[in-house]
């Protein structure tokens, strides 16, 4: 399939009709035309000249065919001229006489000639859409001598058409702002020389120079330099993050002040920014069940309205003696009320606005259907390690039977030679207290239990309780150890040749924001928060108690996590949040899978939503935005149908006029467009 950008689409209903015509061409099966993104996808073998001809019937064209004079939308100027002519004709009617009809016809033609031409073609082809309804209404109004009303209908319809296009264009522009984050070139360092290359030509392993104020071209690792980096475009994090040698950086983020040498770890096409742009643009093309329902409804709704209008025109005069002029007038008004534009627009602008706002916040939603489902979630299941916790052990307790600083110095010296995560946690603890340590002498590893070594000529042992004889552990030491065990912590003992000198309690560190996020989720209406983990129960219960989740299930293998998700899905709409390869099956089975941005590729690819920040902070806001989108869509549909229903009811006493009909249709369209665009608006906080 080949993709083209299309401009000039007048409405969502018209885009759907054009799509159906293109699909009827040879090799046109599977073609899609999205009003919300302005993208056309067609088979490469389709006849493009015929596609262009079909688009031209609606005044639309491919961007590659765009001419300089077509860049400005002439509709606003034509409508403005029509309004001027109408006002002049209205004021001078008594002086001009019957010749004023010519002015009304000219004013109508300026605003409605495109609609009129398209409508006539549709009538010939027996295709019924908005243009068909408006054309019949205009012909009928002129036929019964309602010149003023016909002109007002054409003018208001022109304004409506302009505002409708403006609303969708505003939503598209908001998305296009993301595209401006894409760097175009990079400075590659090779053999001490620098050269400027396109970011598309960057290869893994290339070293690039990023000067202050420049964008980092692709994901990589800092190998030289120190600076603060603004990652707002990728993660939504507003505060700059300090970067130094060995730290990873995102492509598209901005280097603030220092000079950085970055080694590229991903080609641009595989970078985080590229994936965000690709997936958000792709997400616009997916239609939610509600959108599909509305489109099917509109397909049958328009012919139904024409039948209703026919009854209104014929039954009252034939059965109740109502004058034909009045009945025809009422029937024409019914046709205008029946335009389905507001109904079709009720969903796409809101979904596009919601996905764009979430993307700006660093939350990538891979489709409107996932955004809609996210807004209905009432139960959230979390993996523990790497999601609620940092997935990195740290020392939580130091129980010293000698001076604590001395205990840390000896322990860090012994562990400094080890790459084991528990050893590194103890070394990190010593660094936090600015305690200096040195390499041990005569190191000896005890597999499965610990290490021995000399510090300042004295022999020490560090490890788990298997490195000691049970008689070496006094009652107090055993009591302290049992307390740490009951809290689900791993214990490391340090001893010299005669005595145990102290204990270290080590646990996976809970993320700083986890407790606040869980509390916020409960506050916004998430009924149940569940933690799923492979850890043993005491550790899991300790973390669950610390962060405030409502349920915890421990000692689960990946298959059991899936079973738990399936059980939860029987009672509620469930989201699963995880970061590891072992979480991917559960992410796939949940109604909505949510992956951490720095999780494994398998988790990110499987998930429906990706939190680009490496924490849960944006999750409550993402759910709140999704819920707002759902509320907006429901309200849009209710208002669109209600205004039409009220207008149609006015036909019973004969109060429905062409003016009221077009204002009700126009009002509904403007309302759904503005309400949907408000999703993009965010209060500024100091």
Quick gist of this model?
With 686 residues, the chain is of the alpha+beta class.
Instruction: Please report the distance between the alpha carbons of the first and last residues.
Output: 47 Å
Q: Note poorly predicted spans.
A: 66-71
Number of strands: 26
The tally of domains stands at 5
Major sheet size, sense and barrel closure: 7 strands, mixed
The portion of residues forming beta strands comes to: 15-25%
Kindly state the percentage of residues in helix: 40-55%
What's the alpha carbon Rg, rounded to whole Å?
Answer: 34 Å
Number of helices: 24
Judged by helices, strands and strand pairing, the structural class is alpha+beta
Quick one: overall form? elongated
Strands in their spatial order, largest beta sheet? 14-26-25-24-15-22-23
Mean pLDDT: 83
Please render the helix and strand layout as text.
Layout lengths: L1 E6 L4 H12 L8 E3 L4 E4 L5 H9 L4 E2 L12 H22 L3 H25 L5 H14 L3 H33 L5 E6 L2 E6 L8 E4 L9 E5 L2 E4 L1 H4 L5 E3 L4 E2 L4 E2 L4 E5 L7 H14 L3 H32 L3 H14 L3 H5 L2 H13 L2 E3 L2 H7 L4 E5 H5 E12 L3 H12 L5 H12 L8 E6 L3 E6 L2 E6 L11 H12 L3 E6 L4 E11 L3 H10 L4 E5 L4 H11 L3 E3 L4 H12 L4 E5 L5 H6 L2 E5 L4 H6 L2 E3 L7 H31 L8 H20 L9
Parallel strand pairs: 15-22, 15-24, 22-23, 24-25, 25-26
Antiparallel strand pairs: 1-3, 1-4, 2-3, 5-6, 5-7, 7-13, 8-11, 8-13, 9-10, 9-12, 14-26, 16-21, 17-18, 18-19, 19-20, 20-21
Helix pairs in contact: 3-4, 3-6, 4-5, 4-6, 5-6, 5-10, 6-12, 6-24, 8-12, 9-10, 10-24, 12-23, 12-24, 13-23, 15-16, 23-24
């Amino acid at each position: 399939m080949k993709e083209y950008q299309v401009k000039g689409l007048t409405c969502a209903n018209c885009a759907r009709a054009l799509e159906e015509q293109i699909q009827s061409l040879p090799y046109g099966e599977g073609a899609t035309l999205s009003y919300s993104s302005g993208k056309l996808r067609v088979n490469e073998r389709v006849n493009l000249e015929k596609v262009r001809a079909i688009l031209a019937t609606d005044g639309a064209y491919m961007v590659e065919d765009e001419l300089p004079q077509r860049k400005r939308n002439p509709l606003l100027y034509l409508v403005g001229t029509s309004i001027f002519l109408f006002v002049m004709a209205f004021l001078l009617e008594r002086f001009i006489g019957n010749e004023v009809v010519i002015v009304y016809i000219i004013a109508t033609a300026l605003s409605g000639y495109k609609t009129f031409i398209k409508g006539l073609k549709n009538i010939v082809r027996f295709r019924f859409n908005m243009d068909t309804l408006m054309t019949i209404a205009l012909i009928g109004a002129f036929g019964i001598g309602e010149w003023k009303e016909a002109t007002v209908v054409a003018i208001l319809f022109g304004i409506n058409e302009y505002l409708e296009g403006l609303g969708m264009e505003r939503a598209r522009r908001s998305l296009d702002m993301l595209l401006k984050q894409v760097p175009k070139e990079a400075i590659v360092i090779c053999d001490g020389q620098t050269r400027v290359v396109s970011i598309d030509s960057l290869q893994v392993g290339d070293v690039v120079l990023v000067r202050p104020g420049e964008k980092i071209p692709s994901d990589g690792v800092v190998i030289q330099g120190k600076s603060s980096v603004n990652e707002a475009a990728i993660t939504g994090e507003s505060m700059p993050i300090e970067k130094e040698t060995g730290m990873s950086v995102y492509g598209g983020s901005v280097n603030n002040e220092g000079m950085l040498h970055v080694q590229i770890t991903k080609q641009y096409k595989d970078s985080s920014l590229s994936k965000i742009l690709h997936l958000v643009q792709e997400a616009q093309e997916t239609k939610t069940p509600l959108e599909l329902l509305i489109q099917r409804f509109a397909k049958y709704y328009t012919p139904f309205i024409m039948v209703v209008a026919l009854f209104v025109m014929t039954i009252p005069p034939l059965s109740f003696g109502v004058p034909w002029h009045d009945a025809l007038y009422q029937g024409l008004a019914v046709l205008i009320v029946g335009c389905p534009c507001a109904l079709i627009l009720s969903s796409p602008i809101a979904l596009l606005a919601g996905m764009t706002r979430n993307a700006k916040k660093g939350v990538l939603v891979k489709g409107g259907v996932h955004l809609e489902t996210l807004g209905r979630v009432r139960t959230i299941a979390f993996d523990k390690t790497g999601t609620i916790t940092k997935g990195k052990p740290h020392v939580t307790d130091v129980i010293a039977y000698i001076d604590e600083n001395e205990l840390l110095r000896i322990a860090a010296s012994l562990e400094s030679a080890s790459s084991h995560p528990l050893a590194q946690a103890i070394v990190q603890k010593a660094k936090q207290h600015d305690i200096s340590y040195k390499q041990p002498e005569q190191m000896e590893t005890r597999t499965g239990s610990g290490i021995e070594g000399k510090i300042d000529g004295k022999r020490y042992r560090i490890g788990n309780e298997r490195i000691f004889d049970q008689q070496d552990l006094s009652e107090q030491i055993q009591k302290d150890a049992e307390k740490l065990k009951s809290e689900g912590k791993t214990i490391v003992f340090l001893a010299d040749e005669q005595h145990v000198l102290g204990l270290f309690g080590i646990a996976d560190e809970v993320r700083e924001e986890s407790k606040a996020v869980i509390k916020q989720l409960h506050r916004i209406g998430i009924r149940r928060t569940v933690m799923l983990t492979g850890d043993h129960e005491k550790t899991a219960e300790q973390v669950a108690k610390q962060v405030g989740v409502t349920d915890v299930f421990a000692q689960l293998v990946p298959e059991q996590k899936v079973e738990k998700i399936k059980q939860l899905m029987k009672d509620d709409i469930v989201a699963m949040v995880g970061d590891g390869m072992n979480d991917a099956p559960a992410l796939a089975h949940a109604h909505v899978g949510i992956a951490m941005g720095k999780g494994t590729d398998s988790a990110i690819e499987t998930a429906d939503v990706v939190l680009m920040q490496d924490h849960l902070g944006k999750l409550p806001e993402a759910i709140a935005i999704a819920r707002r989108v759902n509320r907006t869509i429901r309200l849009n549909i209710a208002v669109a149908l209600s205004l039409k229903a009220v207008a149609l009811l006015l036909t019973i006493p004969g109060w429905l006029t062409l003016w009221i009909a077009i204002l009700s249709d126009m009002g509904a369209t403007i309302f759904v467009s503005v309400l949907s665009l408000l999703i993009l608006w965010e209060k500024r906080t100091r």
